[in-house]
Structures are given as C-alpha cells and as structure tokens.
Amino acid sequence: MEEPKLNPERWLDNHGDDLYRYALPQVRNRETAEELVQETFVGALRGRDKFAGQSSERTWLISILKHRIADYYRRRWREMPATELAADEAGDEFVQGLFDRGDHWKRSPRWWFQPRAAL
Questions:
Q1: C-alpha 29: how far from its chain's center?
Q2: DSSP H helical ranges for 47-119
Q3: 3-class DSSP string for 2-40
Q4: Per-10-residue mean pLDDT for the chain, 119 residues long?
Q5: Chain-centroid distance, C-alpha 50
Q6: Is there a contact between 15 and 57 (Cβ–Cβ < 8 Å)?
Q7: Res 116: pLDDT
Q8: pTM for the complete prediction?
Q9: How many CB atoms lie within 10 A of CB 19?
C-alpha cells in the first residue's frame, strides 16, 4: 500500500488563503486568524505521520484548523474575567430587578419555599 503524500513545502501557497478565509469569520480578528493558521501548519507538520490519506490534504488541514479554533474558544472562555462573563446587559437588568440595594430579595421566588414543586 502506497503511503499518502503530503507536501508541507507547498501548504502555505496551496492552502494558506483558504485556511485564513475559514478562520477569519470564526474568530473575527485578523491576528488571531493568522496565528491559528500558523498553529495549524505547525500541528500538521508535527502530526504528518498520522495523515492516513483518507481525505485531501486541504480537508485534513481544515480539520486541524477547526480543532485549533475550538481550543482557542475553550482557552478564551476559561481565561475570561468574571466581569466580562456578567456583561450581558439584559441579564444584568433582570438580576438587578430581583434584589434591593441591600442585596436582599425584593420578593422571594416561589420555588424558594417549595423546592419539590420547583423540581
């Protein structure tokens, strides 16, 4: 059985623009998209022995890029400050409507005294 052929020397020329066009709308930041494409090439180079040839080189690279984008968002979510997580204005208004200035319930929720009914 013939070993699948990869041409890492041509990846940037052959696939760089496609990978960048795929990444940019996903992350909405040019520098981040460029970094993710670079990470994709590095990851592909390191893992080229795992390429089974069951897809095209381009499809394989885009698959790696998809994983890099998912990792980017996981990392970003974990590192996001709590103030940014709570920045949803509609949610803030809703929560503020539940409590008074002393952070006490304005009105106890119905489920507060009937947990079984709430379930």
A1: 13
A2: 57-79, 82-85, 89-98, 115-118
A3: CCCCCCHHHHHHHHHHHHHHHHHHHHCCHHHHHHHHHHH
A4: 80 97 95 97 95 94 96 86 58 67 68 59
A5: 24
A6: yes
A7: 65
A8: 0.66
A9: 24
